[in-house]
Design a protein that fits this description.
It is built from ten helices and 24 strands. 25% of the residues lie in helices and 29% in strands. It has 505 residues and is α+β, with helices and mostly antiparallel strands. It is globular. α2 packs parallel to α5, α2 packs parallel to α8 and α3 crosses α4. It binds FE2/S2 (inorganic) cluster. FE2/S2 (inorganic) cluster binds next to loops. One of its GO terms (cellular component) is cytoplasm. InterPro entries: FAD-dep_OxRdtase (IPR006076), FAD/NAD-bd_sf (IPR036188), Rieske_2Fe-2S (IPR017941), Rieske_2Fe-2S_sf (IPR036922), Rieske_Fe-S_prot_C (IPR005805). Keywords: 2Fe-2S, Disulfide bond, Iron, Iron-sulfur, Metal-binding. This is Oxidoreductase.
Length: 505
């Protein structure tokens, strides 16, 4: 089993073997490209660049696929979460056509990699179905159909879908795909190493000096490089992209069915948040994967509730024998509907970033790999301007999440707390955490399995918002830019790169 950023075990995590590193970080060596992040974006980009003759190193703060790659539901789509209606509104019809072309190339790249390297990851082409269930959704579906076709993606109405869910109208989009994401990435990592690339796990990129070559500070020492690429889902530090991306949690289950009626294809309803369904074959065993019940990170007090809602939704429509896996995962919603891929705003020109993939991270990972490679290799690409993180698209209604808890920054943990007082406040079960107010102070308390209470300063070390306890994943999650910490306050995922402060009593 591979490690992940939460207590729940995902299907992909439970059915893949951990990657065993074969090389160490050589701080005496100059690299052409340092890639921070060992998920699908980092590994794919690294391989693409290594194969051009550049010397690349992937630095992963934990272990490969620890973040969202291990928690995705692995849909490979040209039908995107952001409908082509929205993309055309924000980026014009030409922009929508470019996006459709970029994601089509991404799907072809995945397919090509699997064929070229003989990767066994249960890849299968599939048809996608988007269906409406009321009059408003049906109207919206018609607009989506028209904009999707105009963007260059073939879409047509169909009389049936593979899932036993009633619908008014349904759209069918062929030539989508699905696969086992962690097996794909781990196989690609092996190809990368065979091509001479280096992967170092448990090595966090901490900072970069604005020098040429760049001097990258890591938890295992400093290295020099021509380029630095942040493929960390969201970059560390404080940057414009943090204000233009909002973190969300999504919930998924992999289910065994009693009647073996596993649906073909990829199906999506049109609620907000929407539900999705697909089947995955792994080692001869079928699983129905269903997901949804998304919410802004740390904005749900009881994160068991979305799982309960999702389970009852699945049981309403399918004959469930067993919930084999359940897990939640994080994604970043971009302000204007498209990812930010390219030069990091306000940073030296040789620092690149890929973030804001929304719910299409697996597909956009390969758009990013191609686009970032074009930038490093100084090749022209029609996508550079489209996905430029420095673009300004003011979009009404998008919340700047940094404001939500900013008053907390004024708070200081100055009080004196005795062990007795803290234990009195910690009316929680072992293995649980809670935020408490005490004498004007806000504290994060975690009671470990032996009953000992740990007191933590709940101010996120990124920009000081107050973290919230995620009861189902046993993590402290930040509502502002999505940093996550384990129960003891150690950083799991950025943008924070410093642990929560422990308060010793
Ligand atoms: Fe930015 Fe927590 S992630 S304040």
């Amino acid at each position: 089993m591979i490690a992940r950023d939460g207590a729940n075990i995902s299907l992909w995590q439970g059915t893949a073997e951990p990657y065993i590193p074969v090389r160490q970080l050589d701080t005496t060596r100059n690299y052409d490209v340092v890639i921070a992040g060992g998920g699908i974006t980092g590994i794919t980009t690294a391989l693409q660049l290594q194969q051009t003759g550049l010397r690349c190193v992937v630095l992963e703060a934990h272990t490969l696929c620890f973040g969202t790659t291990g928690g995705t539901t692995a849909h490979l789509n040209t039908l995107l979460d952001t409908p082509y209606t929205t993309i055309a509104n924000n980026f014009g019809k030409e922009g929508a056509s470019l996006v459709a072309a970029a994601v089509r190339e991404a799907l072809n790249t995945v397919k090509g990699n699997i064929a070229k390297h003989g990767i066994d990851c249960n890849f299968e082409e599939a048809t996608a179905y988007l269906f409406s269930q009321n009059e408003n959704q049906t109207k919206e579906l018609e607009s989506i159909r028209a904009a999707t076709i105009e963007a260059g993606v073939t879409a047509s109405y169909t009389d049936s879908t593979p899932v036993p869910v009633q619908f008014e109208k349904a759209l069918e989009i062929k030539n989508q795909a699905k696969f086992h994401p962690t097996r794909y990435v781990l196989a690609m990592a092996k190809v990368f190493e065979e091509a001479g690339g280096t992967i170092v796990q448990n090595c966090r990129v901490m900072a970069t000096d604005n020098t040429d070559p760049l001097e990258v500070k890591t938890s295992l020492g400093d290295i020099k490089t021509g380029w630095l690429i942040y493929a960390t889902h969201i970059p560390p530090g404080v940057n414009l992209v943090h204000l233009r991306c909002a973190p969300y949690r999504s919930y998924a289950m992999a289910v065994k069915l009693a009647d073996e009626r596993y649906p073909a294809g990829l199906s999506y309803d049109m609620y907000d948040p929407y539900h999705y369904y697909r089947t995955q074959l792994i080692d001869g065993e079928q699983f129905l994967i269903a997901g949804g019940e998304d919410h802004k990170t740390a904005h749900e007090d009881n994160t068991n509730a979305p799982f309960n809602k999702l389970e009852s939704h699945i049981r309403n429509h399918f004959n469930v024998k067993e919930i084999a896996y359940r897990w939640s995962s994080q994604y970043f919603e971009p302000a204007d509907g498209l990812p930010y891929i390219g030069h990091m705003p306000g940073q030296p020109g040789k620092i690149l970033v890929a973030t804001g993939f929304g719910g299409n991270g697996i597909t956009y990972s390969h758009v990013a790999a191609r686009l970032l490679s074009s930038i490093v290799l100084d090749k022209e690409s029609p996508y550079i301007k489209l996905f430029d993180p420095n673009r300004i698209k003011p979009v009404a209604g998008f919340t700047n999440f940094v404001k939500e808890n900013v008053d907390v920054a004024k708070q200081l943990i100055t009080g004196f707390f005795t062990k007795e007082k803290i234990h009195g406040l910690a009316d929680i079960a072992p293995g649980e955490g809670k935020i408490v107010q005490h004498e004007g102070q806000t504290l994060a308390l975690y009671k470990d399995e032996s009953g000992q209470v740990h007191t933590i300063n709940p101010r996120c070390t990124h920009l000081k918002c107050t973290v919230n306890w995620n009861i189902s994943e046993k993590t402290w999650d930040c509502p502002c830019h999505g940093a996550r910490y384990d129960a003891n306050g150690h950083v799991l995922t950025g943008p924070a790169d410093i642990d929560l402060e422990k308060i010793n009593l």
